[in-house]
Amino acid sequence: MIYPIYIYGSPVLRKECEDITPDFPDLKKLVADMFDTMYASEGVGLAAPQIGKSLRLFVVDTSPFAQYDPTAGNYKRAFINPEIVDESDEEVLMNEGCLSLPGLHEDVYRPEKITIRYLDENFEEHEEELEGWPARAVQHEYDHIEGMVFTDRLAPLRKTLIRNKLNNMAKGKYEASYRTKQTK
């Protein structure tokens, strides 16, 4: 099933998400649907709030960036109840976009390396140290399950400069090549 993507201004994008328990119904189907939705929308990551679900779940596939970063080539994962347990002091500036903020791209500073602990779709625990595109995508999606979007990380002046774009987006004035949903 391909879900519509919830757009900036939808309250679900601002909620801190809840943990998933092992008895969660049809979890593997939800994970598969999220990958399908992400691919249909031409994204490299998708968090549950972006499809209207306040769950600590996101999926990532950074393979489109393999030509720029060899670590991105075979990096496809589902993250359930993730926790970033460490991050480097060094930060890197990279351009980001988001399916929930169509047409908006901004430069964002994030830690260069992170260590994340999570469960996969089989509820097996993993801990990984990431850098490059995988680290960037995971941090971006992790923000979503914490009730944040990438524009929250911009400098105050930059936020002021894009305020009108965000306000228009929240009012339904945007274009996207994929199915979207706006809730108030």
What's the architecture, going by CATH?
A: Alpha-Beta Complex
The count of helical stretches stands at: 3
Amount of beta strand: 25-35%
What is the averaged pLDDT score?
96
Topology:
Elements: E1 5-6, H1 27-40, E2 45-47, E3 57-61, E4 76-87, E5 91-98, E6 101-111, E7 113-119, E8 125-131, H2 132-145, H3 156-170, E9 180-181
Write a concise keyword list for the protein shown above:
single chain, 184 residues, alpha+beta, Peptide Deformylase, 5-stranded antiparallel sheet, two-stranded parallel ribbon, 3 helices, 9 strands, globular
What does this structure look like?
The structure is a single chain. The chain is an alpha+beta fold and 184 residues long. Helix content is 23%, strand content 31%. It has helices spanning 27-40, 132-145, 156-170, and strands spanning 5-6, 45-47, 57-61, 76-87, 91-98, 101-111, 113-119, 125-131, 180-181. The strands form three sheets. It has a five-stranded antiparallel sheet with strand order 2-3-4-7-8, with helices on both faces. A two-stranded parallel sheet has the order 1-9. The model has no long low-confidence stretch (mean pLDDT 96).
Q: Briefly, what is this?
A:
The chain is α+β, with helices and mostly antiparallel strands. It has helices at residues 27-40, 132-145, 156-170, and strands spanning 5-6, 45-47, 57-61, 76-87, 91-98, 101-111, 113-119, 125-131, 180-181.
